[in-house]
Design a protein that fits this description.
This protein has 295 residues and is mainly α. The protein has one domain. It contains 13 helices and no strands. The longest helix has 31 residues.
């Protein structure tokens, strides 16, 4: 169990490191995601082929995977766009509201009953984002992109739940990444027309960051999380995922010293979002304990 928890935290730490790597890469957010996708797809394909894990899916499933993968690709674009237009801390603060946005959006997209307490906690998180947006005007574009990124990952997570239930996680991931890559390839000429980049090819230093981003922060992190899930519950995994923005912001403070450039309103806003996340975690834990007592 201890080894599983270490792997789970290692996976969350690696996911938190994606923001730091995203800022290091010189390409704009669209090209960054495009290269990340193609490197990850090629690596994952040969890895699965060597382990004889490649599985075929029906045409209907493939279309579903491709559509959901498109959401993932756009989520990454907006996330890295938020970093490019503000900084890692702002982008991750917006992303930390994902679970709470899910509480608001899931009843709309599914037939799940709306929970008033979750809506109230979601509003607390939105107030936190507003404080950063309103009192740090130089980060407004980054905040808007970060909020859109959080909403997109909410929709992705909600739609992806049923797919992972009935299919192997790596198979789902491979098809979804392929779908995101195809969609982004189609959109890329229009994207580069409106948002031109100084160069289209990665610099020599970018290649190392891309490999770390694809191999460590995507494939290895996914493997760690899957291995951990064999020993720990999905509930424990979901609670631990809330630490991803915290790890990422600490890394941004250490690597880029972003704490020197953030106003007190960032900390007020982040504190509100963190409070909402902690209260949501405590509410879930208390509900789980009550359910176990009833059983």
């Amino acid at each position: 169990m201890k080894n599983a928890l270490l792997k789970l935290h290692a996976a969350v730490f690696l996911w938190g490191f994606t923001g730091v790597l995203g800022r290091l890469i010189s390409l704009n957010e669209g090209l960054l995601v495009w290269y990340r996708l193609i490197i990850t797809i090629i690596t994952l394909y040969f890895l699965m082929r060597s382990k004889k894990q490649l599985e075929s899916v029906s045409g209907k499933q493939r279309r579903h995977f491709f559509a959901i993968g498109g959401l993932l690709a756009f989520h990454w674009c907006f996330f890295y766009g938020s970093i490019k237009y503000s900084n890692v801390s702002i982008a991750l603060t917006c992303l930390s509201s994902t679970g709470l946005f899910t509480a608001l959006l899931e009843p709309v997209l599914t037939r799940k009953k709306m929970v008033i307490n979750e809506i109230l906690l979601g509003l607390v998180a939105i107030v936190g984002i507003y404080l950063i947006f309103h009192f740090d005007p130089q980060y407004k574009t980054g905040v808007i992109l970060g909020v859109i990124s959080a909403i997109l990952t909410c929709v992705f997570s909600i739609l992806n739940k049923t797919q992972v239930t009935y299919n192997a996680p790596r198979t789902v991931m491979l098809y979804e990444l392929c779908g995101g890559f195809l969609l982004l390839t189609i959109v890329m000429p229009f994207y580069l027309y409106f948002f031109p980049s100084q160069h289209w090819l990665p610099l020599k230093t970018d290649i190392l960051w891309f490999l770390l981003l694809s191999w460590l922060c995507t494939i290895l992190a996914m493997d760690f999380s899957l291995q951990a899930l064999q020993r720990v519950s999905a509930f424990t995994q979901n609670l631990t995922l809330n630490l991803e923005p915290v790890y990422g912001i600490i890394l941004a403070f250490v690597v880029y010293q972003e704490n020197k450039y953030l106003s007190k309103w960032f900390y007020y806003g982040f504190a509100l979002i963190l409070l909402a996340v902690v209260l949501q975690m405590l509410r879930i834990i208390r509900g789980r304990k009550k359910a176990s007592l009833v059983l």
